[in-house]
UniProtKB/TrEMBL annotation:
One of its GO terms (molecular function) is monooxygenase activity. Gene3D superfamilies: FAD/NAD(P)-binding domain. Residues 4-143, 254-318 form the FAD-binding domain. It comes from Catenuloplanes niger. Keywords: Monooxygenase, Oxidoreductase. The keyword Oxidoreductase applies. This is 2-polyprenyl-6-methoxyphenol hydroxylase-like FAD-dependent oxidoreductase.
């Protein structure tokens, strides 16, 4: 069992952890319940801190070449007028890097290939049952509905619904350079570039909605909105629309217990309004491996990992929750807009 690592979940966090932990000399096995990598998925924003984590595991260059660099970012009203913008050039000078947009399937393919080349054993189609893991270190990267988290911390740790529904998708053959969020009365719609000359889009609204004609629902919800929203809605195909309720995890007393470390959404699923979910999973993975490399043993490494990552992600989760509430304000919209402009003066978290 010495020097062996079992990773539960072969998503972004799990594969990044596999690469990072192989670099510490550990024997690594990744067990993923799905039999194959996803073939479809929308774009993720990879912020500079996440790109540094990808650089640390040797795939930052691949991600930058495969993705699209974000050149602008604006917040608009439904009539197309501007509320605020992010000065990405100033922010780039401050952080030393861009924001790169890359789809989840493309990022997973890069990480999967790198994990295999690093010598990790990747077992697809192999779910983990309770207690079915025996290793010196267990990394739980099993997502927002993590069974590992619930086994360690009980039912109180279950993911809970936020009362918000999200829709997302891509448009093939429709290239855009626009990166914008359009905020209406309690609802929002966003558009970003997507690799391969596609357009990535997303929307959210408070409430739960039964399955139905999602295209008709979205066109009704955002009727009369100016481009880029109207442009996307006119081109929507119902077969490509994904809908899901937004869930978050409660604040945990620790990201570790015994020889188990939680990373990514298993530890700190937050509202998607900051676009940081994938980023924080990558940063978790690299941070954990760094402490495994430098600490005297796994128990000390896990204590250091928890001390570093739990406060940082808790702050981000609070910020994401505030952003979500601001997004879904229905009254006093001029006040909301002023708050957003003030927040943009500091720039987003790196």
């Amino acid at each position: 069992m010495t020097n062996e690592v079992e990773i539960i979940g072969g998503g972004i966090g799990g594969l990044a952890a596999a690469i990072a932990l192989r670099r510490t000399g550990r024997t690594v096995t990744v067990r993923e319940r799905d039999a194959a990598l996803p073939a479809t998925g929308t774009a993720l924003a990879l912020w500079p801190a996440a790109l540094r984590a990808l650089d640390a595991i040797g795939v930052g260059g691949d991600v930058r070449r495969a993705g699209v660099r974000q050149r602008s970012a604006a917040f608009l009203r439904p009539d197309g007028s501007r509320i605020a913008a992010i000065d990405l050039e100033r922010w780039r000078r401050r952080t030393g890097d861009d924001v790169v947009l890359l789809s989840r399937p493309a990022l997973l393919a890069i990480l999967h290939r790198a994990a295999a080349e690093a010598g990790a054993e990747l077992r697809a189609g192999e779910p983990v049952r309770d207690g079915d893991v025996d290793a010196e270190l267990v990394v739980a990267a099993d997502g927002v509905f993590s069974r590992t988290r619930e086994r360690l911390f009980g039912p109180v740790s279950r993911a809970r619904p936020t009362g918000v529904t999200a829709w997302r998708g891509t448009l093939d053959g429709r290239r855009t350079d626009t990166a914008a969020e359009v905020w209406g009365r309690g609802v929002k719609f966003g558009v970003t570039p997507h690799e391969g000359g596609r357009t990535n889009w997303f929307a959210s609204a408070p409430g739960t909605f039964p399955p139905g004609d999602e295209v008709a629902r979205l066109r009704g919800m955002f009727a009369g909105w100016a481009p880029p929203v109207r442009t996307v809605l006119d081109a929507l195909d119902g077969a490509t629309v994904l809908r899901h309720e937004v869930f978050v995890t409660p604040a945990l007393p620790s990201f570790t217990r015994g020889r188990v470390a939680l990373i990514g959404d298993a530890a700190h699923a937050m509202p998607p309004d900051l676009g940081r979910g994938a980023c924080e999973a990558l940063i978790d993975a690299v941070a954990l491996a760094g402490h495994v490399r430098s600490a005297a043993g796994v128990p000390e490494a896990l204590r250091r990992y928890d001390r570093e990552r739990r406060p940082a992600t808790r702050r981000l989760a609070r910020m994401a929750g505030l952003a979500a509430r601001l997004t879904h304000v229905r009254h006093a919209l001029p006040v909301r807009d002023r708050l957003l402009r003030t927040a943009m003066l500091a720039g987003p978290p790196g």
